[in-house]
Each structure stands twice: as C-alpha cells, then as structure tokens.
C-alpha cells in the first residue's frame, strides 16, 4: 500500500514516515501546497494524510482538487486546527477521517489501516481470491491452511494484483505502486520481472489456484486457474 504524507512540519513528517514504514507501507511526502499538488496530479495513492495549513495554500483546496480530478484515494485530514467547520467541510469534500494534532502514532496507524480496509476489502481485514487469503493488517498470505512466506516486495506486488483481479496491470503502474513515484522513469523493468518470477514460483509450489499471466508487451493479469 502506498501513502502520501502532506505535512510541512519536518520533525512530525519524519516521525510519521518512520512509523508508517515500520507498519510495511510505502510512503511518499510533500512539504508544501505546490509539491502536494504536483504529487496528486501525477501519481495515485491508496491513502493521503493531509495537513490543512500548508505553505502556499490550504489543504482543503487540495481535497477539492482530488475531487475535481475524480481521484479515489482515501484521505485522512491531520491538522492542529480542531475546528468543526474545517472538519465538516473536509468530510463534505470526501475525506474519510479527521485526526487532530497532537496524536499518538499508534492511533495514526490504526486510522490508516481502518480507512484502507473500508476502501480495499469492504471493511474486512482480509481479501480472498481462489484458495488464497491475504491478511492486510498482518501482512500475511495463506493458501488453504498453509502460510505462504513472502518478502516485502512480493507481498506488495501480490496485494496489488489481488485488489485488481482479472484486470490488466501495466508494468509502469505496478512499478510506481510498489517501488515509488520515480520507478516509471527506469530504463527497464527487470526489477519487476524478477519479483514476478519469484512470486509465480512460490504460488505454484504451494498449490495456489491463482496465476499471474503475462500480457505480451503490456503487463500482467491475475486470474484464477
């Protein structure tokens, strides 16, 4: 899962990033309105943590921009302004939650996981395709009753496919989602192919009923065998 932290307080931003990465999330950052606007216009995220008061602009205007662009990211507003008007406007604009500063990192992590469950897994902490079951919170995968050991990138790749079953996933989209915003500028996608190759072997060895099929010249698709 890929997150964007829009926060101008450097110390707080660093703590948030460290805490979220410890939970297994990929995290990008923006420290002002202009940088945030570029990020949301160019890339897709699973969840955006959005401060209201930013250098160069207002976070609620970014929320309106997301709405205008038809983006589907979950948004948690994070602000020292514990104003009812700001909270109501933010929720009206499509924000999923509102967290007032100061807050504990444990609460932040719980809020992020909650909105991601609502968005991705219909409120459940897991998703199942065929005989494969992925536990998002625990970052674990099971085939029938047997655990499937995966490294961090393999888990992220498989999770992305499971959220998009039977859909064509282009290499550039997969690279951006799992490896970061600048991965689409890579000269080749050998790093994507390597993870897909290893993941295919592990799925086959454990008897998984899902397969990752190559779509020549375009990308990959997850199908139930």
Automatic annotation (TrEMBL):
Gene3D superfamilies membership: 3.40.50.2300, 6.10.250.690, Winged helix-like DNA-binding domain superfamily/Winged helix DNA-binding domain
GO biological process: regulation of DNA-templated transcription
GO cellular component: cytosol; protein-DNA complex
DNA-binding region: 124-224
Keyword annotations of the record: DNA-binding, Phosphoprotein, Transcription, Transcription regulation, Two-component regulatory system
SMART domains assigned: REC, Trans_reg_C
Pfam families hit by this protein: Response_reg (PF00072), Trans_reg_C (PF00486)
Modified residues (4-aspartylphosphate): 51
Gene Ontology terms for molecular function: phosphorelay response regulator activity; transcription cis-regulatory region binding
Keyword DNA-binding: yes
Domain OmpR/PhoB-type residues, every copy: 124-224
Segments forming domain Response regulatory: 2-116
Protein name: DNA-binding response regulator, OmpR family, contains REC and winged-helix (WHTH) domain
